[in-house]
Amino acid sequence: MSDIISSAYVRRDLLTERPAPVKTTGFIGLMRTRLFNSPTNILLTIVGALLLWFTVIPAVKFLMVDAVWTGKDRTACLTENAGFTVGACWPFIQAKLPQLIYGFYPEAERWRVNLSLILAAALLLPLLIPRLPAKGLNAGLFFFAFPVVAFFLLHGGGITGFGLSWTAGLLQLFDDSIIGAGQALLSLAKTSAIAPLFWLAGNLIVLVGSAIYWLIFPLTWLRDQLQGTGQSVWADFAITAAVVSLIAFVAGGGVRTGGRALTSSIGTFIAIAVVIKLMGLDHGGLPVVTTNLWGGLLVTLVVSVTGIVTSLPIGIALALGRRSTIPLIRIFSIAFIEFWRGVPLITVLFFATYMLPLFLPGNFTVDGLVRALIGISLFTGAYQAENVRGGLAAIPRGQGEAAAALGLSWWKTTSLIVLPQALRHVIPNLVNSFISLFKDTSLVSIVALFDLLGSLRASFSDPKWSTPSTAFTGFAFAGIIYFIFCFGMSRYSLFVEHRLNAHRRN
Length: 506
What we know:
Blueprint: H1 2-6, H2 26-35, H3 39-65, H4 79-82, H5 90-102, H6 110-128, H7 135-154, H8 163-188, H9 195-227, H10 232-251, H11 254-257, H12 259-279, E1 295-296, H13 297-322, H14 327-341, H15 345-355, H16 368-393, H17 397-405, H18 410-425, H19 427-440, E2 450-451, H20 452-459, H21 470-500
Parallel strand pairs: 1-2
Helix pairs in contact: 5-20, 6-7, 8-9, 10-12, 13-14, 13-16, 13-19, 14-16, 15-16, 16-18, 16-19, 17-18, 19-21, 20-21
């Protein structure tokens, strides 16, 4: 035992202190490992610092330090009155802010714009938060109910009928177009060298139009009878609700399983009736504000949101059509995509605004803003189709083959297995197109629509605020607005991409 104790080793002197480990975290670690770890990075760091010094510092000085914050007219933003070199003239933005947001929208009716924006935010924010429940109801309200309510809020006006009258009107317009085409051929037959051929084709088309007229005659007769009553809207509404609810009940499975579809249909029509009554749509609705009075941020949001929401379904349909095995659908999709991608957006807007009315019947007109929205949606949809097609091409064939082995139909395989994975792959491309569309809304100014930049340029003509820094202040303010929206979309897309690709994290 004594031998063991005597042989035990006890250190009597301390070891020499070792140097502390190199710090690799925090600001010092960033500088050591990323900014100054090599001659190349040192040079790039110095160049980047100089760029920041000559761009960010002057911008902050112009926007904040040398800015004028209060004033009633241009005299407050003049150097000789301020006593220093004036930067941004923020009183100009304060004075023109209503014009930059609402355009020439009547001041007494601007509460309708505010209410529309509040409703949009109240429906969109819960849709963007993943953990909140009732996503299906929320999406239905935002994508289907809100556009209708927003239209009657922003544009105004009421309704003179409902589903039955609208269906009868569309069918009658289609029939009138067919009969008009036949009569045009008959008129050509009087002076053409191939008069018998034109006469035969014209009479045949007129005959088809007459047959369609008698087929839809009961529907148009019932519409005319309803419009003759004092409560045409509610009578039409009741008939439409009964027919649609019956169809939903039968399609849902009848007595066995159709109760849920019937309940949903009745609840939807009750909600529609409440909206009609609250907004007074059966008695003319709100005062009409024509779209030529809209402007500013309102037009920018309407054009961009409508284009974003409508272009994605169009792009998905075209991408699936381009991969279809049916030649007619595939050729049509390819021709559509290549045509719209080969035409500049300015040409599309010009054609939709000035040329499209020439191809419509004389008694059928489309609002100028609606024409621009249609052109932008189709144009952006063609680009989205190629983005989606890239995602579809990245899905292995084994996914579809496995779904087919399980007995899933093509629709279920595409909607539940293939398409969700494809969209997850192309989230950056889709959001990039959305951001590009949001900025391209400034092109609508060429068709006499004043978006944010258009209203800003119009405000420069006010001599009351004519100063050397007015234009720079206005464009800086517009740039900040665009940056907030675009940066928000970019960050949210990164969040969604990170959340949906959890299986790829290390």
